[in-house]
Hints:
The complex is a heterodimer.
Chain A: E1 2-7, H1 8-19, E2 24-31, E3 34-39, E4 65-72, E5 75-81, E6 88-93, H2 95-109, H3 115-122, E7 124-129, H4 140-143, E8 155-159, E9 164-169, H5 172-178, E10 184-185, H6 188-198, H7 214-218, H8 225-231, H9 239-243, E11 250-256, E12 263-269, H10 290-309, H11 319-323, H12 331-345
Parallel strand pairs in A: 2-6, 6-7, 7-8
Antiparallel strand pairs in A: 1-9, 1-10, 2-3, 4-5, 4-12, 8-9, 11-12
Helix pairs in contact in A: 8-10
Chain B: E1 17-26, E2 31-38, E3 50-55, E4 59-64, E5 75-80, H1 84-90, E6 97-104, E7 117-123, H2 127-139, E8 147-153, H3 162-170, E9 175-180, E10 190-191, H4 198-201, E11 210-215, H5 220-231, E12 238-241, E13 257-258, E14 261-262, H6 263-266, E15 269-271, H7 272-275
Parallel strand pairs in B: 7-8, 7-11, 8-9, 9-10, 11-12
Antiparallel strand pairs in B: 1-2, 1-6, 2-5, 3-4, 3-6, 12-15, 13-14
Amino acid sequence: MELLQISKKELLEFVGTLVSGPLDVFGVVAHDGRFAYDKLDSAANLRLDFDETLYSPKQYLFPPKDPVLSYTPGDAASCAPVYAEKDQAIIGVHPGDMAAIAMLDKAFTENKIDAHYCTRREKTTLVGIYPTKPGKYRFTSSMIKPEEPYLAADAFLIDMGDDSYTIEIVTDRGKEFFSASAAKPATADGKAKAEKMKTAVKDTVTLKIKREDLPPFLDGKERHPVWETRGAKCFSCGSCVTVCPTCYCFDMLDELDLSFDYGLRFRTWDACVLEPFAVCAGGHNFRTKAADRIRHRLYRKQKYLLEKLGLAGCVGCGRCKTACVPDIAFPPDIDDDLLRKEAHHV
Amino acid sequence: MCEGCGCHEHESIYMPEPLTVVQTHPMTERDRFFEFKLNGKDLGHKPGQFAEISIPGIGEAPISVSSSPTKKGSFEMVIRKVGKVTAAFHDLKPGDTLGVRGPFGTHFPMDEFKGKDLLFFGAGIGLVPLRSAINYALDNRSDYGKIFLLCGFTDISQRLFIDEMESWKKNPSLEFLETIDRGSPQWKGNTGVITTLIPKIKDRLSPRNTKAFIVGPPVMYKFVILELRNMGFRDADVIVSLERRMKCGVGKCGHCQIDGVYVCQEGPVFTLDGIAHLVEAL
């Protein structure tokens, strides 16, 4: 992998030229003392020293309300697919969120290829950043393998702690992206230091179970009392899903323009923890209880998607712990409960 | 990913094809029969599959195909009015167009069942997808042994395919029995839940050489399965079709999952031994 180095000042100058160009550039900014992804209107607003953002960058690849078809109302022959048209870059994606994008890539391309996702993805340059601060509840090292972020990233930044970044160039797109910057080849010393700096910031939380052991650990625990205990406190509000970088369940929604001359079919975010998620025709709900829904969510995070895609449906960002009002959604807490109850039964 | 992989050049998996209503008539107060045709081709479905039907501007819904693939030139569905989208389907007239995606999902593997006796349990709207397999078997009658068809409805007003049931009743190549849960003065036939029909045919069943099909409301499955197991049916010989909310039909949206299984991909048709380990299945 080609390594470059660039001073912080030069990087900001480079981002400044991007922001004033045709590309939509997204990055982390500070809002009222908290961090959030936003469209950058000035390089000066870009923060690469964030601990964790409220929402993940998935919204730029899988928007909350994304048109997939346009049509004349009532005329099936008029249906035409709608695809993203603008090129975009996201600068400052933590390894966990980058691994989440790798999982989304797989989810939307395995078996049946979703050209709407792929078109937007193909127009996106992804630049990662290794964390410079611990996340309050981060346990990413427990949930992803170090190589998985590189399945999605075009380049990764490493803060060298001396007003410079090392840039790992991952793809040709990443190379092309930084070719207009002032980055120069990294020195041998710089390369060695960069490797150390990647792991300088440690996780705050460590999962007690190895990722590969999670599916068998969860086998047979579908009727464990922990689901009822936590379900009794669940508001079924969907906050855990909204902030999650990997959740990608969706609904379809038709909307007409007020002129009634044309309409759009949207793909909209949905959440398996919401009460009507599994309701069928005639009103039969196959997951009536909050306990069943939060069990399903955790099994998707730690078992189903791992088995289906080979990548975990949780990347250990800890956002769900921050977002969940009754604090019942955090996978390490649930796993601890399952472990404790297991020990108790013995 | 996606650097030169060309995956964005695939056709949209959400793009419907135009479909025309050939004929339609009401079957009950809430169920309506439709014959549809595609422009110059068949849907290409197998018995038990479903398709996503849509009206641009209203929405899309997964609907089982009711006709056998042996019927060429058009296909049939029965749509129950349960919400905004299905209510709009009920307003369609012959010649109107709508959209279709599919067919999707697994099918009743009728070719694998050649030489076997067939025992069908179709309850309520469950008869709609099951009819595709029943008529497939009748159209290939010499491929199968004895055929038993047991149908059940909640009351006389909910009976579906009344003329066709009459023809099945008269057809000497199958044994047809029908019951309704709640009797009425006009009803002269069997009353009681569908399992009350089993004793009437039990002595003619060969559990080890019979494939049993169950499609009906969620509450029915366990009772029928219990009876079948008691008679010596193996779970591998019991075929069920499970209803879930198959919103996208292509294994992405997550709505139809039973545990980790996507019903739109790995179902809706399952053998009982294939789902016995799933806590959310039945």
